């Protein structure tokens, strides 16, 4: 008997199967999602036909073509069209008109991203810019990892600074002094664990710290 309590797999339509869209579509399938991949280039669609749940050749600026493929029935959509800005914008606008509640759109510039946001994209992704910014932070050596979110919020992985060592986090005043929150902690040779007020930081510990972007960057400078 089927397990009725098991969650249904997410259904995602990925439009544009270039390097970014194709890789994303394959990752979604690998994590259990059902993916409809669409691209205007037959050779590209053929390349991913065996990897995705469904793959189709279509002009994604054509409302009728998208309706025939059942795109309005999806709850999640990704517009991964790269250099064709007109197709990117028109496709995103159609998805918004369909009322799809979760639309991610790839942008090639901040201006492109602002346009996509105005016409209905709920999430705008700038892969090249975001990766460049992340790598820049890592190259400086201040951080072991860096993730920036919207609304000027970020998380960093960094070595515990000297002023945090030897006292419980609840007494270290890191939040009041630096505006950051220690989310998790890793001791050498151990796994990450959630940080608590009574957690005592030791020299060499790795911290996951969250807060406003400039504040977590300044905190990482303390190491």
Features:
223 residues, alpha/beta, Rossmann fold, Alpha-Beta Plaits, 2 domains, six-stranded parallel β-sheet, five-stranded antiparallel β-sheet, RCK_C, RCK_N
Task: Kindly describe this structure.
With 223 residues, the chain is of the alpha/beta class. The chain folds into 2 domains: 11-125, Rossmann fold; 130-220, 2-Layer Sandwich (Alpha-Beta Plaits), CATH 3.30.70.1450. 35% of the residues lie in helices and 25% in strands. It is built from 9 helices and 11 strands. The protein has helices at residues 19-30, 42-48, 63-68, 85-98, 110-118, 127-139, 169-172, 174-178, 213-220, and strands at residues 11-15, 34-39, 54-57, 76-79, 102-106, 123-125, 145-149, 153-159, 180-186, 192-194, 206-212. It has a 6-stranded parallel beta sheet, sandwiched between helices. It is elongated. The mean pLDDT is 90. It holds the Pfam family TrkA_N. One of its GO terms (molecular function) is monoatomic cation transmembrane transporter activity. One of its GO terms (biological process) is potassium ion transport. InterPro entries: NAD(P)-bd_dom_sf, RCK_C, RCK_C_sf, RCK_N, Trk_Ktr_HKT_K-transport.
């Amino acid at each position: 008997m089927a397990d009725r309590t098991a969650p249904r797999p997410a259904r995602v339509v990925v439009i544009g199967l270039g390097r970014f869209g194709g890789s994303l579509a394959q990752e979604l399938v690998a994590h259990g999602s059902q993916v409809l991949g669409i691209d205007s280039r037959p050779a590209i669609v053929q390349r991913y036909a065996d990897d995705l749940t469904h793959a189709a050749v279509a002009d994604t600026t054509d409302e009728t073509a998208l309706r025939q493929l059942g795109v309005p029935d999806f709850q999640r959509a990704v517009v991964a069209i790269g250099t064709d800005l007109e197709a990117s914008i028109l496709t995103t606008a159609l998805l918004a008109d369909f009322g799809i509640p979760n639309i991610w759109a790839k942008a090639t510039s901040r201006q492109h991203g602002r346009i996509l946001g105005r016409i209905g994209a709920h999430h705008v992704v700038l892969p090249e810019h975001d990766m460049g910014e992340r790598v820049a932070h890592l190259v400086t050596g201040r951080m072991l990892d860096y993730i920036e979110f919207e609304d000027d919020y970020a998380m960093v992985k960094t070595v515990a600074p000297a002023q945090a060592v030897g006292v419980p986090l609840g007494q270290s005043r890191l939040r009041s002094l630096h505006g950051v929150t220690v989310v998790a902690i890793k001791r050498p040779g151990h796994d990450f664990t959630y940080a608590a007020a009574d957690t005592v930081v030791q020299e060499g510990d790795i911290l996951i710290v969250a807060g406003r972007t400039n504040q977590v960057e300044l905190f990482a400078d303390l190491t």
